[in-house]
Amino acid sequence: MKKLDTVASNWTALIGCVCLGLGIAYRAVVPAENPVSGALFLILCYLIPVSLFEILGRKSHRRASTGLDWETSRSPDLQRVVVKLVGFFGIMAAVVAIHAVFRIYAVERLIMPLAALQLLLPVCLPLVIAYFYFVDRRMREPHDGYHEFGQLLLRRNSDPDWPLLKDFALGWMIKGFFLPVMFAYLALQMPRLHLDLNQLMQGPVAAAVYLTTALVIVELTIVVVGYAMTLRLFDAHIRSPNGLLGAWVVTLICYEPFNKIASGQIYPYRTEQDWSAVAGDYALLMWPWIILVLSAFLLWVWATAIFGLRWSNLTHRGIITNGPYAFTKHPDYVAKSLFFWLTAAPFLTAATPWQAVTGTLSLFVINAVYFGRARMEEKHLSEDPDYVEYALAMNERSIFRGMARYLPFLTYHAPDRQGSDTARKSDAAQGLPAE
């Protein structure tokens, strides 16, 4: 079968996870002074080696999809760079203002990312200026979202490019919504690395619980880096945000503050205790259960790590066809669904039969939500002919192809629009991405 192109590399995932794993082991033994500095330390443990490998090893900056031209040298346009910087700092200020006014998250969720921003500002400010100056000289189409938004703020454009501004705003809405809370989650997990280290010596179930904590930290670190590093230089820019209302609904329902209402009250799939409280009561199931729990989470982490610097919700940042995506189009959702079933296990952990029934039914609702997310992602990514080619190929290659024979709705169908129209939209997305 034809080998499909991919923007990802298993080597990127391996290098990043190994370096991050060493950082986690160090912080487990030598705790950080505070959660924020500990989280930033792990971010650097992952970001630096992965960035170097992307540039020096994979030469991602040379890919045509970056929109950068390395063959011709263009004189810098300082005025345009200043306008882009106005756009960048303007959109940053808008994100902070929206959080301050609307209080999307609780205040304690925002203290840690604001503290991190304060620590990083002296280092990142000159890097941001240098990045915009350098990349602007190489862009085939320097008129991007930052420039358009900067022009709008400076009132220098009487005829704004509203479709471009819409994609730009959606891209930053995604980053501004998810990045702060993901960093807060990461920072809040940091103390557990050292405080819970003794769990490794308290039996196999306790050790497995500690390992899942470490894997949560791995996953969160990669996610935070992914949201932050939407840069052309690494071919990690947002090519297009998902503008489908259904996609936003099924995605946001999985995250704060909406998940507290949904999975916390409407369909509560967790009981007062989880799998670790009862696993020891079932001698024949304990070790298979532990192996399945850790395997599901390892698959989840692999499906995240393969993105490298490109992970995020609701965006198209390049098509990935290798790693776990060589076996199924949505390995992360498969892994999450399995992990939720294995760790919640309401049929074993519930105090009453009614709790067992409602918890089990709620898990089916969770599965339906992730199925909806998969469908919405496919609909968005199908604007790219590369994804259409990949998804059609997966009808024959996927490990679930046998199941699709009996459940036809699992089979991918190419969009009805003409291929030329699909290609045109893809080219437009690559030429004028949100970032």
Automatic annotation (TrEMBL):
<feature type="transmembrane region" description="Helical">
    <location>
        <begin position="168"/>
        <end position="188"/>
    </location>
</feature>
<feature type="transmembrane region" description="Helical">
    <location>
        <begin position="111"/>
        <end position="134"/>
    </location>
</feature>
<feature type="transmembrane region" description="Helical">
    <location>
        <begin position="37"/>
        <end position="56"/>
    </location>
</feature>
<dbReference type="Pfam" id="PF04140">
    <property type="entry name" value="ICMT"/>
</dbReference>
<feature type="transmembrane region" description="Helical">
    <location>
        <begin position="208"/>
        <end position="229"/>
    </location>
</feature>
<feature type="transmembrane region" description="Helical">
    <location>
        <begin position="354"/>
        <end position="372"/>
    </location>
</feature>
<keyword id="KW-1133">Transmembrane helix</keyword>
<protein>
    <submittedName>
        <fullName>Isoprenylcysteine carboxylmethyltransferase family protein</fullName>
    </submittedName>
</protein>
<keyword id="KW-0812">Transmembrane</keyword>
<keyword id="KW-0472">Membrane</keyword>
<feature type="transmembrane region" description="Helical">
    <location>
        <begin position="286"/>
        <end position="309"/>
    </location>
</feature>
<dbReference type="InterPro" id="IPR007269">
    <property type="entry name" value="ICMT_MeTrfase"/>
</dbReference>
<feature type="transmembrane region" description="Helical">
    <location>
        <begin position="81"/>
        <end position="105"/>
    </location>
</feature>
